[in-house]
Amino acid sequence: MQNGHGVIFSDGELWKATRRYTLASLRDLGMGKKRIEGKIQEELQFLVELIKSFKDEAFPLKTLTLATTNVAYGIVFGDRFDYDDETFLTLLKHVDDVVVLLGEPQLQVYNVYPFLGFLLKPHKMILDTMEKTRVILREYLAAGKKSINENLLQNYYDYMLTKQQSEERSKDRNLFHDTNIVAAVFDLVLAGTETTGTTLQWAILLMMKYPDIQRQAREEIERVIGLERLPTCEDRKQLPFNNAIVHEVQRFASILQQFPRCTAVDTCFRGYFIPKGTPVIPSLTSVLYDKTQWETPTQFNPNHFLDAEGNFVKKDAFLPFTIGRRNCPGESLALMEIFLFFVGLLQRFTFCPPPGKTVSDLDLTPEVTFTLRPQAYSTCAVH
Ligand code: HEM
């Protein structure tokens, strides 16, 4: 997909340098800090206005992804997009197509038997859509080269371009070439949007499915921060029930099941010898649904993260971002986003099934794409 460039699909020296610099740039751009909290709060207000405009009428859950996408895009491109901006909607559509196609069984067939490629379509469609996306991302790169001000780096492109310029000056390496920058941007556009958007959709679907939990969550919000003030990350400590819900949403939804890796060295694991270079596909669900770690692994149960007094408890087996050297670099951003959007939405709306559907009609069986998405339901948000 990326010809070994970027962060997700690269390895060796290029991966190390691109990942390290991506993490540093994300931190400089405010990830995990007040600055990004402010951006998320701002985006929350745009989302609230959009939802209000539906005037209690049903709207697709997918609408929520506009806001989470805009937070990541703010980091990558330096500014949020209007929700009806043509480039924004085109990028959303391309990413959506790629994510859906990545879940196609035919693609797995192609990965195992590439010589059957001439009979199969999804891999061609993915490559085609990725190229269309790159055309847009290259335009931003060209514009970034013209406007960059080394004393005022405003977005991820600026950081990557500074690195490119310093490599050119020192003539020592050439890792941050245009192809790698565009691939790394693509990775953030893909990994930073689909994941948080899907999680937020799950959260609201689960609140529709379990109205009592939704009511309790709202009562806690009303009691602790009221119905006016915007939520902050600090509120997490005072909102243990809401904090437990968002953790349980991530555990229960277990949205990322497959991320193919390979053994970096000869490895012995549970009595099996796995030679260096063998493809392995870790299963996160095996941890997030582990019977020895969770009381009711297959049920949505916020008590998994609460003690008898209702205090929030961390769990070692809560690993939706994985651990290790390749763990998710967007973890702190994602946790912030999910908490603030969730609390901010529940503070203002009650979410109910759309007309013609009852709570028992809501089916929690996921739709299999690259992520496990909730089914394409609509919701009514009563202000
Ligand atoms: C609910 C939200 C998210 C979840 C559940 C999630 C989960 C994951 C997982 C499981 C991996 C694979 C780690 C591995 O291979 O060991 C990953 C990788 C990655 N994620 Fe996330 N992620 C989320 C949000 C984000 C965000 C917001 C960003 C960007 C700002 C991001 C950027 C990345 C990147 C670049 C990688 C590749 C890391 C590497 O290969 O070195 N993710 N994520």
UniProtKB/TrEMBL annotation:
The keyword NADP does not apply. Belongs to the cytochrome P450 family. This is Cytochrome P450 2W1-like. InterPro entries: Cyt_P450 (IPR001128), Cyt_P450_E_grp-I (IPR002401), Cyt_P450_sf (IPR036396), Cytochrome_P450_fam2 (IPR050182). It is found in: Endoplasmic reticulum membrane; Microsome membrane. Heme binds at C328. The keyword Heme applies. Gene3D superfamilies: Cytochrome P450 (1.10.630.10). Keywords: Endoplasmic reticulum, Heme, Iron, Membrane, Metal-binding, Microsome, Monooxygenase, Oxidoreductase. GO terms for molecular function: heme binding; iron ion binding; oxidoreductase activity, acting on paired donors, with incorporation or reduction of molecular oxygen, reduced flavin or flavoprotein as one donor, and incorporation of one atom of oxygen. Its cofactor is heme. It is a peripheral membrane protein. One of its GO terms (biological process) is organic acid metabolic process. Pfam families: p450. GO terms for cellular component: endoplasmic reticulum membrane. It comes from the Eukaryota. It comes from Podarcis muralis (Wall lizard).
